[in-house]
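Annotators were shown the component list below and the corresponding predicted structure, then asked to write short factual statements about the assembly.
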Amino acid sequence: MPSEAGDGFRRRAAALLRSAANDLKRDDDNAERDLGLEPGSFADYTSGRRPVDWGLIRRAAEVWPLNERDLLPVHDDCPRGLSVMRAKESRSSSRVLARGGEGYYEYRDTAMSRIASYRPEWIRMLRVVGDNDPDNPLVQWNRGHLLYQFTYFVGPVNYYYRWQGRSYCAPMETGDSVWGLPFAPHSFTARSDSEPAYILALTYGGSLVGDAQRELAVLGRQAAHGLALPVADGPSSLAAALRSFMAAQAVTPAELAARTGLASARIRQLTGEDTEDTGGSAVESELGVLAQGLGVSVRDLLPPRSGTHHGVAIQHGRDARSWFLPDEDTPAYRLTRLAGDPLHPHTSALQVDVLTPAARSDAQLVTYQHQYLYVLGDQPVEVGWEHSGERGTELLEPGDSAYVEPQVPVTFSTGGGGQHPRVLLLRIAGAVTPEVRYALGTMAEGGINRYIAEDQLWYSKEGSDRRA
Amino acid sequence: MPSEAGDGFRRRAAALLRSAANDLKRDDDNAERDLGLEPGSFADYTSGRRPVDWGLIRRAAEVWPLNERDLLPVHDDCPRGLSVMRAKESRSSSRVLARGGEGYYEYRDTAMSRIASYRPEWIRMLRVVGDNDPDNPLVQWNRGHLLYQFTYFVGPVNYYYRWQGRSYCAPMETGDSVWGLPFAPHSFTARSDSEPAYILALTYGGSLVGDAQRELAVLGRQAAHGLALPVADGPSSLAAALRSFMAAQAVTPAELAARTGLASARIRQLTGEDTEDTGGSAVESELGVLAQGLGVSVRDLLPPRSGTHHGVAIQHGRDARSWFLPDEDTPAYRLTRLAGDPLHPHTSALQVDVLTPAARSDAQLVTYQHQYLYVLGDQPVEVGWEHSGERGTELLEPGDSAYVEPQVPVTFSTGGGGQHPRVLLLRIAGAVTPEVRYALGTMAEGGINRYIAEDQLWYSKEGSDRRA
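Structure shown to annotators:
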């Protein structure tokens, strides 16, 4: 383990080892025999008295059907619930990336955390163009990248994007924003060299990084292509979901007809087998009986929708919705909705104009999402938060950025200054998906606490456990 | 890395390193500087010419905002797409777990893989009881465990479960099955010592293990409890989802009313703020405008449903649905639906009676799920499959078990024997959730292949990349 790994990391590693042994139904004696440990020592590891080291992890991954990473926790680099990266630190990470031997972008890191999948960069455009032509040879395109990208524009920036072989240019201004799909090539230039032209390129991996990527890397290309589900308007998306569930349950059209009371011909229409007559979309009552018959929920049959056009969702500031929180009469903030897409229902991008001189309890912002914030404009902002029963405040200067953990309440205030500070907020989901959140909601009593830190064998050696 | 780690593991580790550097917008020069590597060596690591070792992983987790596990792939212990554990190997893993000093269960491992979250055990009941009293003092309860458990019963087995402090006993017979929620205490005994009495206890972690658990372990108890969403009939579940999305987007009831055209009073009813008058469930048109207004899909607003009662879903064999595949006139298999729950729409449990003497192409079973199979009864079964363009067959004897990768087509046949073999199938979702599957369906051209094995910088140093 890294030498700087704290007590928390050690405790979490201990709990993972106990959890892994429990899952494999190994008590301490079995585990010691399997791992070649001296008698009595397993409890030292699972209690945190002895650190779980790389040697033990390797051995466990050899003798047990698990992987090294299954025994590794993550680092808590945000013990106060909010961590700040100052503009000065960002500036010191500055690096120029060249294309064809000439500087094209200046990159600076902003706030990141080991807990979240954000990879947010401040990027200044070094290339200046005199037109909005997507085929301008001065424009240097990238190859696209894995991460989703939310971009906020400051100054006269041209945004170029390519989709299915065609290139587009969208001239952007301060307050405009865009959300884009992975692996689509794109580029940025400045339309002027006399004013600031930069972007906040807030990339994040979301559900695409982590376990899913590891699994698909093993399963390979063919399986990955086979697992893709179409996002489309109309009946084809439901048809794909239905076929997928029918295959999962080895249910034939005749059996599904018998379970649902729908005619076999209608089942063939809904599953897209009858290509000549699709018979129209499923109505609500049909979705209900299909879900019942397949033993799933209606939500599982409904596809997500997307508002992207050519792979992107552009939101110009001039058309963006704004509202006041908590209300128009006594506003603490003016909020503006930035670019996003229903494909990522758990991503929200907001511009916050801070109007209140002091933190207000009726203007606390709390969410299940991870949060990233960046101070736009030229006014400092005071941020207050609560974590583990403690309150914190920080004065953030323009160009400062911060990461905030889920469920940490945050307030903003001007700190008494007459001007209105402006904050960019990007909130994203972590690995705790709705499925996991609903699972937490159905766990037996005491389950949640054991789930996040298993510290005991799954049974009592002495006999029945009467605590339950 | 473990010495037995193959080329595949090394290649996948190389791709993860390139991907991590890309995500952090580090080209080779930057990465070498950050990691203290000699010039030119980074490409050796990301190409797989030099193995990514633990030292490099530790260093990366120190200087970059990521964790050791983010750079670790998983092992492919199933290179043929299907792997078998013979009954003999299972027997050799036999171990007796005692309660109060007396043997209570005999455990045997069955087929597992490092790719999937199955922890399936064969368990024989050593304790014999003479009644069906849940409070029989001979019954030794466990504390419950993290994993979901699907159980298939063979012989006269009593199943005990406890929910919210009350204990229950369900007398089970061969062919009965049950699906249960995590952390609920349970136990098993035999009603007879003169006939076999055992279970297949097929536990699996699903979405609860892996990244989500790591993240919640850092966020802590309070956050984990705060993230739980209720699974309930009636309006309270929608209300919780709506409040969660409104908080995520910092949308006030007034703003949501303006976006949707619904009255503010109705919004208060739907979000559960008006506790005196809930005004009835949301109708389809309201769900549509709410999803539109919040920028999500209708699926995101609908809660899952559960059919569990006291934490379990019991399916007696005598009431179970059966059907033939591909059809009743020329059946290859008779399928029987075993226990499950809509909370886990991607888990399916099936009993397969194999009727066909030879593998049939119209009876190939393919699914997006991971598969576990166990040969019940006393007849061997022939299993055929295809993987990477190669066909395999194995004769599985009673008590043999196997793991099958997603998307691998499988057939069963009697191999010419006159009797009908019986196979237990448990299929579960992996880390590739519907969200990821829909994301695969929307990636830009070529994205899927790069997603599972990134082998290039995200841009060309020479200038524009014209391949896109």
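Statements collected:
1. Chain B has a mean pLDDT of 93.
2. Chain B touches chain A through 181 residues (CB under 8 Å).
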